[in-house]
């Protein structure tokens, strides 16, 4: 977990130096810190989300998507405490029984003000990390942005970090029933909150960045039914089934050629990306 107190001290030292270059560097440090804070939380949810599922990469949106698709615990303020149940296990029935135990605090996860973090992340970049595009009204051209404006945003970012620095743990995962799929190609364990799959026909992508597998999950008669999302071809040599994952085609262009080697007889079959005509009935 990022040592925020150390980061804050480094940023404040750059502010004290006060040169155009050090203040600009402080702005960059603040932006990186905001990204790190959000991404280190996201990292704890890797088993639940594939890179192909991510709609946007900006730190605020990454946390928001995990919150909506998996669990909002990613940005809740939560204190975790533990207690030994000792020999009293059978006597622990009600919530009050559990509350009476002798708890030891493990740590607290702080909640990030995502809206504030996102605004700062944007304005730090706008003020400090680009050379201003000159217009006809500008007499000269400046290398650095306005030191005063940058300093004010850096201080606002430091205030944000100060509010988070007492958080000493982050929590990942989903508290509830999960449905797990072991990828047939790469062996990765893909986890999904079970309730998100109950609508049926849910496509679950493999979490490995380079694995093309995806699965279609349906919920029928109280059971989850999984099938590989593949196109089926026949081998010309031996008639064996050739299964190609849907995602294999996502990076191909018009007229691209995909060569498939049959696992049974080693013959090669080519699949060419071409438009397919479908005639609709006149109504
Ligand atoms: Zn996989
Ligand atoms: Zn074959």
Keywords:
flat, alpha+beta, 11 strands, binds zinc ion, 4 domains, 3-stranded antiparallel β-sheet, 283 residues, two-stranded antiparallel ribbon, 20% strand
Task: Walk me through this protein's architecture.
This protein is α+β, with helices and mostly antiparallel strands and 283 residues long. It folds into four domains: 4-76 and 111-164; 80-109, no CATH class; 178-228, no CATH class; 231-272, no CATH class. It is built from six helices and eleven strands. The protein has helices at 4-17, 20-43, 59-69, 95-99, 114-128, 147-164, and strands at 78-82, 104-109, 178-182, 189-193, 202-205, 214-220, 223-228, 230-234, 241-245, 257-261, 268-272. The strands form five sheets. The chain has a three-stranded antiparallel β-sheet, with no helix packed on it. Strand 6 and strand 7 (223-228) form a beta hairpin. The longest helix has 24 residues, at 20-43. The radius of gyration is 27 Å and the shape is flat. It starts with a helix and ends in an 11-residue tail after the last strand. The mean pLDDT is 94.
- Biggest beta sheet summary: 3 strands, antiparallel
Q: What's the overall geometry?
A: flat
The pLDDT mean sits at 94
In total, the number of domains comes to 4
Structural class: alpha+beta
Q: Percent of residues in beta strands?
A: 15-25%
Spans where pLDDT lies below 50 across 5 or more residues: none
Order of helices and strands: HHHEHEHHEEEEEEEEE
Number of helices: 6
Report the helical percentage. 25-40%
Task: Give the number of DSSP strands.
Answer: 11
Strand order of the largest sheet: 5-6-7
Distance between the termini: 62 Å
Bound molecules: zinc ion
The whole-angstrom Rg is 27 Å
């Amino acid at each position: 977990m990022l040592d925020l107190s150390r980061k804050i001290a480094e940023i404040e030292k750059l502010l004290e130096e006060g040169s155009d270059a050090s203040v600009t560097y402080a702005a960059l440090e603040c932006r990186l810190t905001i990204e790190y804070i959000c991404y280190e939380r996201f990292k704890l949810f890797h088993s639940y989300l594939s890179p192909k599922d991510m709609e946007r990469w900006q730190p605020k949106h990454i946390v928001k998507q995990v919150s909506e698709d998996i669990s909002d615990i990613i940005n809740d303020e939560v204190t975790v405490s533990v207690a030994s149940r000792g020999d009293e296990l059978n006597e622990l029935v009600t919530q009050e029984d559990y509350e009476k135990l002798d708890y030891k605090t493990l740590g607290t996860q702080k909640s990030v003000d995502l809206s504030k973090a996102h605004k700062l992340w944007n304005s730090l970049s706008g003020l400090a990390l680009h050379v201003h595009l000159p217009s006809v009204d500008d007499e000269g051209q400046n290398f650095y942005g306005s030191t005063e404006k940058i300093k004010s945003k850096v201080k606002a970012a430091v205030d944000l970090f100060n509010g988070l620095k007492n958080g000493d743990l982050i929590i990942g995962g989903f508290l509830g029933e999960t449905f797990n799929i072991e990828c047939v190609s790469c062996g990765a364990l893909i986890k999904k909150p079970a309730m998100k799959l109950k609508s049926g026909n849910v496509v679950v992508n493999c979490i490995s960045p380079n694995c093309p597998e995806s699965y279609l999950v349906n919920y029928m008669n109280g059971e989850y039914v999984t099938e590989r999302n593949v196109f089926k071809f026949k081998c010309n040599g031996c008639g064996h089934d050739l299964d190609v994952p849907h995602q294999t085609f996502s990076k191909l262009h018009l007229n691209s050629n995909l060569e498939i080697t049959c696992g049974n007889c080693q013959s090669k079959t080519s699949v060419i990306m071409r438009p397919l005509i479908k005639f609709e009935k006149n109504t």
